[in-house]
Specification:
Helices cover 42% and strands 5% of the residues. It is mostly helical. It has 3 domains: 134 residues, no CATH class; 108 residues, no CATH class; 107 residues, Cytochrome Bc1 Complex, Chain D, domain 2 (Orthogonal Bundle), CATH 1.10.760.
Length: 430
């Protein structure tokens, strides 16, 4: 076979591959049409509606679909991504602007396939790659709750502000071909019922991996890296690894400690702050005891990986005397002479993984902007951390954190003024 014929064969093969890929993408884009609107309301039992309300809390649906100061589930809240902002839709039963004309089939398709009633593709800022696992029975219950207990609100959906080409359905269809296949939860017969229930909630409706799993440049979770930890887009918080012993693995926690942390936002082993405090406040504090036990049963036995602490820049680093002095002035009264904290009020800093993680973002965020554990039934008046943005300079905060990260048995790298700069700039108001 001469070179010209080889070139023609290669070109033909490449063309066939491109045509096949284009066909797959176009089928994803246009292969499913609209589902007819309903004319009459969907009847449901009070038990189904109540169960749906509970499940919607587990999924923290209101967390995205309720704008600050807005009506419940009326949408308009921006979910910022590296590709632009996606605005949560109106889930109230208004027929013109919400889901009042949606059937239960259309609602389930949205949750399971990430496709709207009219057939257009939904952006995965709505975490359907996780929520796809939700059973039809549970999806119907959530639908019953939204249609029967939420007041209809006439509010047009806010248009997304995504950059080109991410704002096109064609690009989204290509992304889905690469990274999304609708799934149903398959119980593991070798595991107990509590583990399976926990896996169903953690992997699916509670969508823990949406924040705690690493993502690639196109925003898809990376296979084999579930719960490995990831930066949350555009807010500079780090969702720590749920498998790393030195980050947020709970393999060595008691079940009661993990359950208390999920339901109350605080336990003997730590407190929830930042975005996780919002999740506890809006979602996990409402878990039934059996579901909390199920989730912690699953989380506790996740495979554990070992990660090294951030190494010190130098083994003979001089004691941070200025940092120690500043700690004594600003931190000691709450956190103690030796970072021991005060049980039930102020967390210990000695041996605290949030203090010694390689990624110091969360630590810097809390010192600059302050933070509170969530107010819950188990901790109705949480103690808070005041912001030091207007009190201490970048250099002073860096010295305090460097001292804390290298004292009382802690052995983590220094925090520098350069580490601090981007956070202070992000918190500046115009």
């Amino acid at each position: 076979m001469n070179a010209k014929r080889i070139a023609l064969v290669v070109a033909a093969g490449a063309m066939a591959t491109l045509l096949l890929a284009a066909g797959v993408v176009l089928r994803e884009l246009h292969g499913h049409g609209a589902i007819a609107p309903i004319e009459t309301s969907w009847s449901a039992s009070s038990e189904q509606v109540t169960r749906g309300e509970y499940l919607a809390r587990i999924g923290n649906c209101a967390g995205c679909h309720t704008a600050r100061g807005g009506e419940p589930y009326a949408g308009g809240n921006a979910v910022n991504t590296p590709f632009g902002a996606v605005y949560a839709s109106n889930l109230t039963p208004d027929k013109a602007t919400g889901i009042g004309a949606w059937s239960a089939d259309a609602f389930y398709r949205a949750m399971h396939e990430g496709r709207s009633r009219d057939g257009h593709l939904l952006y995965p800022a709505f975490p359907y790659p996780n929520i796809s696992l939700t059973s039809r029975e549970d999806a119907d219950a959530i639908y019953a709750f939204l249609m029967n207990r939420i007041a209809p609100v006439k509010r047009e959906n806010t248009a997304h502000t995504l950059h080109f080409p991410y704002n096109t359905q064609l690009a989204l269809a290509a992304w889905r071909v690469l990274y999304f296949t609708p799934e149903t939860f398959a119980p593991n017969a070798s595991q107990p019922a509590a583990w399976n229930r926990g896996a169903y909630l953690v992997q699916g409706l509670a969508h823990c991996g949406a924040c705690h799993s690493a993502r690639n440049a196109l925003g898809a979770t990376i296979a084999g890296h579930a719960y490995d930890g990831a930066m949350m887009p555009l807010n500079d918080w780090y969702a720590p690894s749920l498998t790393a012993r030195n980050e947020a693995s709970v393999a060595d926690w008691d079940l009661a400690q993990i359950s208390a942390w999920l339901k109350h936002g605080i336990s003997e082993r730590g407190a929830a702050l930042g975005p996780m405090a919002e999740v506890v406040y809006q979602s996990t504090q409402y878990l039934r005891d059996d579901d909390a036990t199920a989730m912690v049963t699953y989380l506790k036995v996740l495979p554990v990986s070992e990660t090294s602490l951030a190494p010190r820049a130098s083994t003979d680093r001089k004691p941070e005397t200025q940092g120690e002095r500043l700690y004594g002035e600003h931190c000691k009264n709450c956190h103690g002479d030796r970072g021991e904290g005060k049980s039930g009020a102020f967390p210990a800093l000695a041996g605290n993984r949030a203090v010694t993680m390689v990624n110091a973002n969360n630590l810097i965020q809390v010192v600059l902007a302050g933070g509170f554990a969530p107010a819950t039934t188990g901790n109705p008046r949480p103690h808070g951390m005041p912001p030091y943005y207007h009190v201490l300079s970048d250099a002073e905060i860096a010295k305090i954190l460097t001292f804390i990260r290298a004292s009382w048995g802690n052995d983590a790298a220094a925090v520098t003024e350069l580490d601090m700069a981007k956070f202070r700039n992000a918190l500046r108001t115009p």
